[in-house]
C-alpha cells in the first residue's frame, strides 16, 4: 500500500466507524427507550429504521453528486448534518414530555446526513489507489472499521445509558465532528483528469448508468441483494439478542459485552478476509460463498433447536456473523474494482442503499416475527441467507468476466 496515503485511509475509515456508532449504539438502549417513552418494541425499532430508511432514498443522489463534484464536498456537509441531528434528538429526549415523534424526525435528518457519508467512502478508496490489491486492502480496512464500530457500539451505548438513556444521542455529534476534522485536513481528494471529467448533464449521466446496469446487471444486482441480506441478518439478529437479554434481566454493561461478541467475530473475520482476497476475484467469490453458506447453516440450526440457552444463542450467532464478515469485503471489492471511476460513486451508492434497506427492515421484521417464536424468526432469516448463498454461486461468475 502507498505509505503516504495511510493517513488518508485512516481518516476515511473514521466515517463508517462514526456512522455505525450513530445507529448500532442505540440498539442496546432500545428497551430503556421503550420504557421511558411509553412505546412498543415495534415503535422502538423504528428509531433504528428511520435512520436507515431516509438514507436509502438519498444515497443515490449523494453518489451522483460525489461523481459530479468531489467526494469530500458530499461527505463533510453530511457529517455536520449528522452532528446537528444528534443534538436535536438528545434535546428532544431531555426537554420534551412526548419526545418520540421529535426523536424520529431528528433520526430522519440524521439519516439524510449519513447518506452523504459512508456510501461515498467506497468510491473514494477506489479513487485513492491505482493498484487493485491496494484497493482491496483499503476496502478491507474500511469494512473492518465499520464492523469494529458495531463491536464497540453496544458496549459504549450500554455504558452511556447508565447515566441516562438519551446520552448516546449526545455522543453521536462528538464522533461526527472528530471524523469531520480528520477528513477535512488529512484526506486529499485525487485530482480529476480529463478522462474523469464529471458529466455535465444529469440526463446523459443517467443514460450511462442505465446502460451500465443493462450490461453488468446480473452480477451487480446479485451484489446489491447480498449486501442487503447481510445487513438484514446482522441487524435482525442483534435486535433479537438485545430484546432477549433485556427479558432475561441481564445488566446493561454485561448486555453490551454480550452483544459485542458476535460483532467482534464479524470484525475479525472481515479484516482477515480483506487481507486474504487480494485482487483474485475467484477467491472473492468462493470466500463469500463459504461464509454465507456457513452463516445460513448456523441460522437454520438456531431455527430448529429446541433449547434457548443464552450461551448457545450467542455462540451460534457469533459463527453466523463470522460468515457474513467473510463475504462483505469481497462484495465491496468486486463492486468497486469492477466499475469505472466516472460511475463508481453512483453504482456503489446503489449498493449502499441496498445495505441500508437491510438495516432498516431488520429490527421491525424481527420485532414482528418474535411475536411468534424464536424458531419462526431464525427460519425466516436462514431462508434469506440461503438466497444470498445461491446468488453468490450463480450470479457472481468472475471466470466469465463480471458483465
From TrEMBL:
Residues 8-400 form the Major facilitator superfamily (MFS) profile domain. This is Multidrug resistance protein. InterPro entries: MFS, MFS_dom, MFS_Efflux_Transporters, MFS_trans_sf, Tet-R_TetA/multi-R_MdtG-like. It is found in: Cell membrane. It comes from the Bacteria. The keyword Hydrolase does not apply. The keyword RNA-binding does not apply. GO terms for cellular component: plasma membrane. The chain crosses the membrane at residues 12-30, 42-62, 74-96, 108-126, 163-187, 219-241, 253-274, 286-305, 311-329, 350-370, 376-396. It is a multi-pass membrane protein. Keywords: Cell membrane, Membrane, Transmembrane, Transmembrane helix, Transport. It comes from Cohnella abietis. Its main location: membrane. GO terms for molecular function: transmembrane transporter activity.
Amino acid at each position: 500500500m502507498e505509505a503516504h496515503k495511510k493517513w488518508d485511509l485512516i481518516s476515511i475509515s473514521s466515517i463508517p466507524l462514526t456512522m455505525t456508532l450513530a445507529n448500532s449504539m442505540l440498539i442496546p438502549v432500545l428497551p430503556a427507550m421503550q420504557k421511558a417513552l411509553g412505546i412498543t418494541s415495534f415503535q422502538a425499532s423504528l428509531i433504528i429504521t428511520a435512520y436507515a430508511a431516509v438514507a436509502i432514498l438519498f444515497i443515490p443522489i449523494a453518489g451522483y453528486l460525489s461523481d459530479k463534484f468531489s467526494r469530500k464536498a458530499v461527505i463533510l456537509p453530511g457529517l455536520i448534518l449528522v452532528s446537528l441531528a444528534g443534538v436535536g434528538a438528545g434535546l428532544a429526549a431531555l426537554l420534551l414530555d412526548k419526545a418520540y415523534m421529535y426523536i424520529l424526525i431528528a433520526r430522519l435528518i440524521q439519516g439524510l446526513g449519513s447518506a452523504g457519508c459512508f456510501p461515498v467512502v467506497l468510491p473514494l478508496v477506489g479513487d485513492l489507489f491505482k493498484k487493485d490489491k491496494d484497493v482491496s486492502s483499503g476496502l478491507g480496512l474500511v469494512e473492518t472499521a465499520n464492523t469494529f464500530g458495531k463491536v464497540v457500539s453496544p458496549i459504549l451505548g450500554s455504558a452511556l445509558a447508565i447515566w441516562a438513556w438519551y446520552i448516546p444521542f449526545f455522543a453521536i455529534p462528538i464522533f461526527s465532528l472528530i471524523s469531520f476534522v480528520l477528513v477535512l485536513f488529512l484526506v486529499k481528494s485525487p485530482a480529476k483528469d480529463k478522462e474523469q471529467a464529471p458529466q455535465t448533464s444529469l440526463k446523459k449521466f443517467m443514460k450511462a448508468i442505465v446502460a451500465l446496469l443493462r450490461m453488468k446487471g446480473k452480477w451487480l444486482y446479485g451484489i446489491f441483494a447480498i449486501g442487503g441480506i447481510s445487513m438484514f441478518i446482522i441487524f435482525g439478529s442483534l435486535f433479537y439478542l438485545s430484546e432477549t437479554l433485556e427479558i432475561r434481566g441481564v445488566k446493561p454493561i454485561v448486555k453490551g459485552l454480550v452483544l459485542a461478541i458476535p460483532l467482534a467475530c464479524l470484525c475479525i473475520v472481515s479484516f482477515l478476509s480483506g487481507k486474504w482476497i487480494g485482487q483474485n476475484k475467484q477467491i472473492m467469490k468462493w470466500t463469500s460463498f463459504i461464509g454465507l453458506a456457513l452463516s445460513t447453516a448456523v441460522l437454520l440450526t438456531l431455527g430448529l433447536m429446541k433449547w434457548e440457552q443464552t450461551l448457545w444463542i450467542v455462540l451460534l450467532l457469533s459463527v453466523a456473523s463470522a460468515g457474513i464478515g467473510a463475504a462483505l469485503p469481497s462484495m465491496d471489492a468486486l463492486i468497486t474494482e469492477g466499475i469505472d471511476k466516472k460511475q463508481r460513486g453512483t453504482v456503489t451508492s446503489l449498493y449502499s442503499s441496498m445495505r441500508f434497506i437491510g438495516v432498516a427492515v431488520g429490527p421491525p421484521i424481527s420485532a414482528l416475527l418474535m411475536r411468534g417464536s424464536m424458531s419462526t424468526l431464525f427460519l425466516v432469516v436462514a431462508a434469506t441467507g440461503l438466497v444470498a448463498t445461491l446468488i453468490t454461486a450463480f450470479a457472481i461468475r468472475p471466470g466469465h468476466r463480471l458483465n
